[in-house]
Amino acid sequence: MMVLDSACVQYGLARALHDVCITASQDEIIAIVGRNGAGKSTTLKSMMGLLPLSKGKRLFQERDITTLPVEQISRLGVGFVPDTRRIFPNLTVHENLRMGALAHKPGYWTIERVLEIFPRLQERIGFGGDQLSGGEQQMLSIARALLGNPKILLLDEPTEGLAPKIVDELIDVFVQVHRLGTGLVLVEQNLKVPMRLADRQYVLDHGTVAWSGTSKELDAQRDHVESIITTGVSSEE
Ligand SMILES: Nc1ncnc2c1ncn2[C@@H]1O[C@H](COP(=O)(O)OP(=O)(O)OP(=O)(O)O)[C@@H](O)[C@H]1O
Hints:
The protein has helices at about 40-50, 70-75, 95-100, 110-115, 120-125, 135-145, 165-180, 190-195, 215-220, 220-230, and strands spanning about 1-10, 15-25, 30-35, 55-60, 65, 80, 150-155, 185-190, 200-205, 210-215.
């Protein structure tokens, strides 16, 4: 279980997160949703240990990891797929995967197995990273993160800007990865993808959790939650 407990994050004097509490366990898919600037990427980076907390704690498997460097948090079993995708443009798909395998930890995921769930990458195995479509680059970035055999995988806007067919393929992969034992934390700007696969959602607004609940609760309060995402909490008051 990964926990952000009353986490506050500052960029200089500007407050980006205030008292954010989030839990994500290995046996669930959670989504963090909010519009531009709500604090989603900051939350994900805070979970990964890429940003220091000015107050609050982060915990992983009941261990306080608030001051652990990101490399150690990664070694404990937390994977990260940034929105920038971070693949090597001048290396082939296979070489990119071999680079990912350098951080390989024993577990289910091997290069052969990630190529099985991403047949498009198998077809493009000799292509350079810069010859791939946006969707294929996203698949490569996710495949590389899986090679670290994370217990929990954090994904920053993994479906942003992708064609509906590719989004469908990614959703199938997320479901399979989750069934094979990895917890997922997805950041998204709206509820479309989360509604299709997340167990629970957190809605962020102005750096705080404005709403959280299960998918069933979300179904019952869909209009209210949509209005928080599109217009913010203050307009609700
Ligand atoms: N490196 C930074 N330095 C200063 N302020 C930052 C920095 N990164 C983010 N911010 C600010 O922190 C707030 C939260 O940003 P964050 O990127 O976490 O939001 P987001 O919900 O992920 O938005 P987006 O969907 O646009 O990525 C915003 O006001 C943003 O301008």
